[in-house]
Amino acid sequence: MFKPVVSGGPVVSRVILVGQAPGDKEPKMGRPFAWTAGKTLFKWFQGALGWTEAEVRSRIYFAAVCRCFPGKKATGGDRVPDPDEIAACSHWIDRELEILRPGLVIPVGKLAIGQFLEVGRLDDCIGRVFQARRVELNFDVIPLPHPSGASPWHRMEPGKTLLNKALGQIATHPALADP
């Protein structure tokens, strides 16, 4: 049985934000980043861009590595999608890239970052702009940490400073001005 697919809706943008997968609340709310992590994410964008949540959702295309809630871990918390689930959903991101031809991709969290870059430590990739290539397209990648309450990385140093640097890079990226 397939679980409900969560979509950010039909937004035409040169900027794509890619999350890991919906949480358990997102299918009920009908949109990505609809719960606690979303509140943090939209506060980040409010501070960096001056945009409300509605403005972010209308100007940035939201995608995910996996489109359905993967379920809970036996120990609690959301389960990370496995490689087969990631492979089964990868064609969605590929098609979205081909259609939207982004100038900027913003992967949120290590799983999403890993779809575009080799990732080790967040300290090595947050706050940097990378050039990437996928489906014969070139685009910039500015990674963000996951805004989940489960990770304190973005609330302590060097995470706070690197997050602010990344948000500044997003705010000044030409793709945001490109309709």
SSE topology sketch:
Elements: E1 15-19, H1 26-29, H2 36-49, H3 53-59, E2 61-64, H4 83-100, E3 104-107, H5 110-113, E4 130-134, E5 137-141, H6 159-171
Parallel strand pairs: 1-2, 1-3, 3-5
Antiparallel strand pairs: 4-5
The CATH class name reads: Alpha Beta
Strand order of the largest sheet: 2-1-3-5-4
Name given to the CATH homologous superfamily: Uracil-DNA glycosylase-like domain
The average pLDDT value, as a whole number, equals 93
Main beta sheet: 5 strands, mixed
What is the name of the CATH topology? Answer: Uracil-DNA Glycosylase, subunit E
Order of helices and strands: EHHHEHEHEEH
**Spans of 5+ residues with little confidence (pLDDT < 50)?**
none
Question: Which structural class is indicated by helix and strand composition?
Answer: alpha/beta
Helix fraction? 25-40%
Q: Which band does the percent of strand residues land in?
A: 5-15%
Described by its quaternary structure, the protein is single chain
Shape: globular
- Count of DSSP-assigned helices: 6
- N- and C-termini, Cα separation: 39 Å
Task: Report the radius of gyration as a whole number of Å.
Answer: 15 Å
How many domains, as an integer?
Answer: 1
Summarize the model shown:
The chain is of the alpha/beta class and 179 residues long. Helix content is 34%, strand content 13%.
Explain what the structure shows.
- By secondary structure, the protein is an alpha/beta fold.
- The protein has one domain: Uracil-DNA glycosylase-like domain (Uracil-DNA Glycosylase, subunit E).
- 34% of the residues lie in helices and 13% in strands.
- It contains six helices and five strands, in the order βαααβαβαββα.
- A five-stranded mixed beta sheet has the order 2-1-3-5-4.
- β4 (130-134) and β5 form a beta hairpin.
- α2 (36-49) packs across α6.
- The longest helix is centred in the middle third of the chain and has 18 residues, at 83-100.
- The radius of gyration is 15 Å and the shape is globular.
